[in-house]
Design brief:
Helices cover about 50% and strands about 20% of the residues. It is an alpha+beta fold.
C-alpha cells in the first residue's frame, strides 16, 4: 500500500496519545476498539442508541415505498396492510422524502395522507390518534394546520409489524 493511500489518525485522550496508520477500514476498526477500551461509556451508549440513517430506512422499507413524480408513496402492490400500518408507512415515506431532499418537511397533514393513500379521512384521523397516543407519531400544530411525523419508536414498531406480517424487513 502506497503512503498516499494510507489513513493516519492521531487521538489524544487525557495523557494518552495514539496514532493509527493503515487502510481506512482497518484504522476505523482500531479507533472503535481504542475508544471502547478508553471510554467504556461510549460502548454502552452505542448499545442503547437507536437512530435510523437514510440508508437504513431505504434498505428497511424499499419493498413498501417508492419515490414517484407525485411524491413518496406507499407501494404495496398485492399486499394488504391495515389502515394504521399504511398511515405510519406513509409518514415514513415523508421522512425518507425529506431526508433525500424530495420534500421540504418530514411531516404531513391529514389531507396529505388522504391524498397519498386514498384512505377515508375519518379512518386516518382515528389511526393518527391511536399512534400518537402510543408515541409512534408526533403531532405538531403549525401555521399550515396540524402535522404529523413518525418517531424513531414508530419506525422501530412498524419495522416489527411489517416483519411479522410480510417478512423481509430488517431492524
Amino acid at each position: 500500500m502506497s503512503e498516499e493511500n494510507k489513513l493516519q489518525v492521531t487521538i489524544t485522550y487525557g495523557s494518552s496519545k495514539t496514532v493509527f496508520l493503515g487502510k481506512p477500514e482497518t484504522v476505523i476498526v482500531s479507533i472503535n476498539q481504542f475508544l471502547s477500551k478508553q471510554i467504556p461509556a461510549l460502548n454502552l451508549a452505542e448499545k442503547l442508541t437507536l437512530n435510523y440513517s437514510i440508508s437504513e430506512l431505504i434498505d428497511n422499507f424499499k419493498e413498501y415505498i417508492k419515490l414517484t413524480e407525485e411524491g413518496p408513496r406507499v407501494w404495496m402492490q398485492n399486499r394488504k396492510l391495515s389502515d394504521k400500518d399504511t398511515v405510519c408507512l406513509q409518514l415514513i415515506t415523508a421522512k425518507i422524502g425529506y431526508m433525500t431532499g424530495n420534500l421540504t418537511s418530514p411531516s404531513l397533514t391529514l389531507q396529505d395522507i388522504h391524498n397519498s393513500t386514498n384512505l377515508k379521512t375519518k379512518s386516518i384521523s382515528s389511526r393518527l390518534s391511536e399512534v400518537t397516543k402510543s408515541g409512534y407519531v408526533e403531532r405538531d400544530n403549525t401555521d399550515q394546520g396540524t402535522k404529523y411525523k413518525i418517531t424513531t419508536q414508530g419506525i422501530h414498531w412498524l419495522t416489527g409489524i411489517l416483519e411479522k406480517k410480510l417478512g423481509s424487513v430488517k431492524s
